[in-house]
Amino acid sequence: MGNISGHYFRVATFGESHGPAMGLIIDGLPAGVRIEENQIQLELNRRKPGNSPFVSPRKEDDQIEILSGLTDNLTNGAPLAMIARNVNQKPKDYSAINKMFRPGHADWTYYKKYGLEPQSGGGRSSGRETLSRVAAGAVARMLLKPLGITVSAATLSVGPIKSLRFDWDFAYGDPLLFLDPDLAIQAHQFVLSKHKLGDSVGAVIELKAEGVPAGWGDPVFDKLNARLGGAFFSIGAVKAVEFGQGLTLAQMLGSEANDPMGPSGPTTNNHGGILGGISTGRPIRARLFIKPTPSIAIEQKTIDLNQQNATIKVHGRHDPCLAPRLAPVAEAMCLITLADFFLAPPSRL
Length: 349
Known about the structure:
Distance between the termini: 34 Å
Number of helices: 8
Number of domains: 1
CATH class: Alpha Beta
Radius of gyration: 21 Å
Strand order of the largest sheet: 1-2-3-7-4
Shape: globular
CATH superfamily: Chorismate synthase AroC
């Protein structure tokens, strides 16, 4: 299984949704980086369930424990290991359906690859695995902070309701992380109305990385956008990714799409801060398209382990919309990828 990410900032995650703990190991951190445990906890609090009517009501403290790698809050060159214990599992929520494949989940593909019956809570494929990524992203944020690099993500749209203006300060105070204060109530009502019917809602996440210097990334197979795209696609709910103007570029003329050049580089940012797979010095802009939460209380057709037709309703504690909990995960995957390029040895063609 692909449990390790990165070449120089190497992150390995472990744990299952209904297991005793989630955890991670970071290898490659240079000695002397100050790590503040409370800052990691703040990032985990943004991702954890139970914070609003727009996320799963599962109650988890997600309390981080740093096991190794620090001396007086400074990295000491050894692997940095952390865990957060699972305290609120409810396997009985799955007892009635544990011999059936849930539509939209990885139950079927894990069964075909590993021969595993559907696991309580989704096991390793559960979104709870992203807890470990967010903790790693918090460490990467501390590593990159002295360079002035910041990464932010918020909800651009839910269902058909799309932000017409971006207010990042508002978004970080909104329970749905919605960017447009004029449309936020409408977005809230849309998500809650579908949840009341037992359904869920898809979304788009807007991400920006500012302060990334020009020259990060490598040509051909290790492009910065390829690595970022792979990092974003490693998040289970992400089904499409755009950089800059994205799909709109296919409808534009070259004279419209090209970013004019000035003494400091591109003067516009249609390409989202990356050209030839290498950062331009402009903000990196990306959008992540998120599928609706597959666990819904509406009856669906499926099959059981005997390949017999069946119907299924998935009860339990599930997110009406994944956007508010996925935004910090998107930030984390961007930060982890940028940290890997930061620690890479310099190269010149």
